[in-house]
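Entry under discussion copied across for reference:
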Amino acid sequence: MHKKAIILFSGGLDSTTCLAIAKSQEFACYTLSFQYGQKHAVEIEYAKRLAQQFGVVEHKILSLPLDEISDSSLTNKDIPVRDFKEHSGIPNTYVPARNTIFLSFALAWGEVLKASHIFLGVNDVDYSGYPDCRPEYLHAFENVAKLATKVGVENDQAWTIHTPLLRMNKSQIIAEGLRLGVDYSKTVSCYRADAEGRACGTCDSCTYRKKGFKEAGISDPTKYVG
């Protein structure tokens, strides 16, 4: 019997690679996506199709009103998503506590499914500098998971947050995904993706994605506006 794993899944380049890795490690995969008021909500449609193509056991899509409490440019219609530029601070695409919220739902579902493995496609090499993508945060959440769950307290069960992409740059992530058969033309990563899933080409996410394909020497299959 395969071990069960929850994969936090947006339908983007990183989370799709993460799902492919979990499948290759023979986990029974349960994907979890969130409609949280993000402007690029088209990613949910991509996630649905990809989950089906990968043959996951179950794909849940939960609705969370983060746009009602967030001042992120990803959720607030009055704050524009900026083009990429080198910066030292945390960009305005940061959604407060997003990974903590998402991981908490994965933890709850995992406890019900008896799935003590959670996969998360975070990266701290080619990324925007979000605080909830750092190794120290992820280790801390594993400790919280054990302290906060019935199985952790009664059964001394450890929880494992798998972050296979954490130390990889985008070109390495793409190479690994291609090795595992990922079709990146079926993914969307853009923070300003339109209703058809076409990417802007200039936001942080697009910039790192384009850089990854270029450095990997792979033709970029992304559909861009214009």
